[in-house]
Amino acid sequence: GDLLVQVRVGTHPVFGRDEYDIYTAVPISFAQAALGDTLRLETIDGQVEYELRAGTQPNTRIRLRGKGVPVPRRSERGDHYVTFTVQVPEHLNREQKEALQAFDAACGGTLSAPEKKKKGLFK
């Protein structure tokens, strides 16, 4: 007779799966997103090196071709999709706040400072 086998794949704490494709979210810092960086990304086959481009926007998704799940009885694999999530620090010390305020000022001053509100520059 025939033997029928049913396989159930459990959930993984890092990798998500849809058919033969793998999905992950990788947190990056604002500095990494703005300046670029060399990252070591975890795949189901181990780590791969990826050059993150300067100016990467939040929730940017990339595709690592052929880094997904092998397709049975074929010599191909699914893809691995990585979404970069920019992490915003929740607590900053005085020096970090001053650095960000200086950065904002150098970029044209987007912060709505109390002095500007008093002068009617912000509504």
Describe the secondary-structure layout:
Layout: E1 16-18, E2 21-29, H1 30-35, E3 37-43, E4 46-52, E5 60-64, E6 80-87, H2 94-106, H3 114-118
Parallel strand pairs: 2-6
Antiparallel strand pairs: 1-2, 3-4, 5-6
Quick structural summary:
The protein has helices at residues 30-35, 94-106, 114-118; strands at residues 16-18, 21-29, 37-43, 46-52, 60-64, 80-87. The chain is an alpha+beta fold.
Explain how this protein is built.
The termini are far apart. The protein has a 4-stranded mixed sheet with strand order 1-2-6-5. A two-stranded antiparallel ribbon has the order 3-4. The protein is elongated, with a radius of gyration of 22 Å. The protein contains 3 helices and 6 strands. It is 20% helix and 32% strand. The relative contact order is 0.17. The chain has helices spanning 30-35, 94-106, 114-118; strands spanning 16-18, 21-29, 37-43, 46-52, 60-64, 80-87. The model has no long low-confidence stretch (mean pLDDT 89). By secondary structure, it is an alpha+beta fold.
